[in-house]
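Morning!

This is the sequence you dropped in the shared folder:
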Amino acid sequence: MIEGRASLTAATVALVVALESYVSHDSAIAGDEHLSETGRSTIHTSSRLQRDILLCMSRQRMFLPLWTLLQAVLCHAIPANWFRRFWQWAMGKTMQGPKLRKLYMEQQVRTFLQKQHAKAQVLILAAGYDTMAYRLAHEYPDVNFVEVDHPSTGATKIEMFQRYFAHKRRAIGDELHFPGNLYFCHIKLGGDAPTTLKGALTEGYMIHHLPSPSRTASQMVQSSSNQVFHANTPTMVVMEGLSFYLSEEENRSIFEQIDSVVGCPGTVMAFDYFHLDEYKRPQTKDTKKTLTALGSTFLKYKVKLFGEPFVWGTDPKELPGFFRGTNWRLMKNAETVQEAGLLSSTTFDCGPQSTSLQLGIEYEA
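The structure's back. Tokens below.
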């Protein structure tokens, strides 16, 4: 991504999720008839918070045309639903990708915490503007959640939360409580990053969390990473929407660094990836369909224009070979979106390659 600028792709994904906030809970448009009641409830809750957070984004923090689009589309149900239908027509089933991907990731985290709640932590790589950690940190106050993201994107997200809290207090006098167990670590992942992921988590790198309502919005609280993140502790690692922007070597490096920091029995990693064709376009089962092919091409050039091009992908059949020689193995019992009860139909094809495939990875000693 372009230095000094918050991720435009992260904002676009957040917009797609936020659009769901204007869809009635029992609506069946745009493929929602395939979502189970659990899936719909999760999306409805998370999308409303996502919308409110996005509307608090400062125009100085975002590419002006995209900021203008966010404000115009999310301000009311009418433009939101029109834009949602347009995006569905233009992109086809790929619009379901962010929704199902986030449902899967949240289900994996919840399943992990139910098993390891007594002693566990959650690490989220390239969190973007997602609200999962904020919501789950309230539910699990004795579990530390650490979000790792690019400094520009991370700073933008913190400012959005601060503006969101200030707005709520002015509007309804509600003293919102920001969870004291949610931390933000701002480093560049991959490339020529001055600080490695391993170094940031173990060598006393300063990480931040938002203040309680009793402090002013400008007062950030800082802690040393090795006081918050504990090595050799069962960890749920989420790497959503990141692998395809890094090279194969950079992806391998991240898995190796996580192994060296929290590589212990019980550690699980959920991630997604694309199966890219020879033109660096996300492949789908419907590659012969013109609309789907155009949608994949649009995705390719959109992220390239944003300065965040697709770099790496792999055939699902080759994934086991990617981890050969490491301490990671594919979980045989990893739940899919269907198995987690998030989809009510086994025939629903969201174009799994274009929406990314999610697989659980478990550390094996």
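Headline: The beta strands are 121-125, 144-149, 182-186, 206-209, 221-224, 235-239, 268-273, 328-330, 357-363.

More detail when I'm at my desk.
O.
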